[in-house]
Design goal:
The complex is a heterodimer of chains A (278) and B (525). Chain A has 278 residues and is mainly beta. Chain A is 4% helix and 42% strand. Chain A contains 1 helix and 18 strands. In chain A, the strands form 4 sheets. In chain A, strands 2, 4, 6, 9, 13, 15 and 17 form a 7-stranded antiparallel sheet that branches. In chain A, 52% of the residues are buried. Chain B has 2 helices and 32 strands. Chain B has helices at 6-14, 269-279, and strands at 18-24, 63-72, 79-91, 96-99, 105-108, 111-114, 118-123, 132-139, 146-147, 151-152, 162-164, 174-183, 191-203, 213-215, 231-235, 244-252, 282-289, 307-308, 314-315, 323-335, 339-357, 360-365, 371-372, 381-382, 389-397, 403-410, 417-422, 431-434, 446-455, 459-475, 500-506, 513-524. In chain B, strands 3, 4, 7, 11, 13 and 15 form a 6-stranded antiparallel sheet that branches. Chain B has a 6-stranded antiparallel β-barrel with strand order 18-28-25-30-21-31. In chain B, a hairpin with an 8-residue loop joins strand 23 (371-372) and strand 24 (381-382). The chains are: A mainly beta (278), B mainly beta (525). The interface between A and B is large, with 59 and 55 residues.
Amino acid sequence: MTWATADDVLKADRQRGVTVPMNGAATGNLTSASVNSGGMSMNVLFNNFGTTLWSSLKGFPLPPAVTDQQDWRALWLKNASTRAGAYWAALLYKIGDVNLAASGQQLTHHAAGFPITRSMAAGNTEVRGFPLILTTTATSTTAPVIGNIKYRNGDGNIVTGTQSFTYPATNTVVGSSYLLSLEDEDESIQDITEVNIATPSSAGSAAVYLAEPILPASVFMAGSVSQADALRGARFGLPRINPATPASGTLDWQLALMCCGVASTNTGTALLRIVPQT
Amino acid sequence: MPVLTVEEAQRQVHEDRCATRLVDNHIRSTRSSLLGAGAATVTRNGPTIRAIPNPLPSGVPAYIPEFVEIMSSAATGPILLYEAVLLGSLDCATGTFTDGAAFPTRTALGSSRQLSGQVVVECATDMVSQRTIQVTYVNQDGTGGRSSASHAITVNALKNSTGILVLQAGDTAVQDITAVSASGGTSPTGTLNFWGVIPVAMIPASFGAAMLTKNLLAEGVIRRLAAGTNLRCLQLNTQAAERAIGMLRFVHDTAGSAPTGNKRPLDSVGNLMVNQAAFGELAVGLNVRHTPATTATVGATSGLQTAQVWDRDYVVPSLGAGVDGAVISSYGGSASATTEQVLVWRAAVCAAMTFTGGGNRTYVQGAAMPSRKHYSRASAEQTVSRMPILRVSAAVGGASTPTITISYTNQDGVSGRTCVMTIPSNPAANSAFFMLPHLQAGDSGIISVEDMVPSGGSTGTLEVWGCVDLGADVCFSSGGGQNVQVATPSEQPLLQAGDALNVVRVNAATSVGSFCCFDLIGVAA
């Protein structure tokens, strides 16, 4: 039953709310973005338990009931991560892996079909997200250059991009993450279908994600706690926290913290309250 | 019935009758200060979002923007979220202006009216060489043939470089552009777009790359946006290369007849939403450039703070039938240097005095503070100026720190009170000196002025402005601020057609550009 009032939300929270502990793995110092590598460092924080940085990444643990078939919402987020910066709790959907050490189209797309959708009142709606690239193997000898990407933009149009992306360092540290370059009139993606390497590195690989921001909770000063209230604060309605539905197959998705603008070592420490709307 | 309460908006979200959109600006290198130093208030076209979901789902008459949050890779100025109207474009190679739309006609403050606003000039492409442009436009009052300043476009300005057009003296806004002249340059190429700005809200600056969420509904910004609305963002006060990303959520409005407006628009978000739906908001954006003023003298009786007033007023337009008056909601300000900014209603020019030399003056009696309804009150009450200002209307000359003795009637109606001020030597026009600290002991405001007598001074004119503050903002260094007007405890006077609003800049005397935006919301009779 859809919540009609704030009391309905709070009652559901009393009865079935879940607090998700988000204790992250320390990232180590990463390589900052340059203006030619997206212009913004993205420090992605994964669950400490179960994660082997940066090869095996585990998201923060959500209850098994949180699936694309259930309506779960995010009520609040408290963030005490170690690094000051701008944060979102975000759902990351893996699009595929990229070999940075070879030329040409080097994206191996995940088996799950994109675009991914949510059932909204207006019908199934494609999810729009930021194009996140996470370095899974450090680069070496040469800073790789992505000549362009081919992607499905936020409106569902296929775009062959013209913007290049140059890794910020010859030896970009593993775990360093950035935003890929889109065309000027695009602000989000539904999918990426090609990553064309113009200049390969001697070594290096990356994973590409569609990053769907859910709730913000920026840390203004290291050591302080910030909070976002989705009922009567940062939002006036709880956003979906359950994952979207793939066009086919099974998604590789996880809940993470995205810290934007920071490359220094960071450990995610947060609490997320989620509630099912049933 | 349209969505009229926070609870209804929440229910729409929980029923998934909403849409989320992301923001990304892609600025890869430093942009140019497009219109040259001294002219432009702001530069940089910041994060750009494209038109909101279009077409609207069946049965959805409009989108209500609920929140917006933007993070930036650098500590920068605030971001203006606005509706963009393409007024036209200029082919710099041929000098040909292609006319676009005018500001739209909408219902605002209870009547259908031609909107007006500021014009942002944007490089749609990289420029080669430059052009000097001058814009002919129709001003806020519908008067055509007005001319902007002559702007020398920065040589080789990069795509997305921006600047705000400087209007003819006395003008506060543009309804339409009718022509653009272009001259100069060496084989120039490039395209300039002229965007009309209908402001939505000022989004707080990213300080140290952290991010603040602006809950628009909570902060008194109510909009019902139609399909095809071109929402854009303008980064203020910086040209630096930076990446900015963010998100907005729009709540689906519901169909139905507009409600009857109420008398108390600011007691709750709901009341504000009702009056916005009933009468339509009037969104005002002002490009304010304060001319260099003269600092107050430390330790002397010249207001204890330096201040500047704007060389023109924003005049409240006509109100529709059924609208008893208008109040300010959601004031936001920005300046290119640390300062405070106060929007005031200049309710009366209480008196004026022109120096004639030898301690003599020509005195002109002005008006008393008017009686005015405050919202929720049935009858008009005597207003009191809690921010009386001694303003230099013509530069003062020939004196070393002239002393002015002002006789006035205080907040309780007691006449014959005196305020003695010693102002700096030769203050420039539009210097402003606060009288409040120097009123007679026990007084907190003025109703009228009986006389102004100088000691010293040979030229120049001073005025006493009876001002009522309506909104204020603290603008951080290279940043901006935000002000929440909803549910403030003060009862604002109901503004009427013809009321003069001025933007006072405090704690500075230099010539800088400021931008402010606010909504006028109607109050029912």
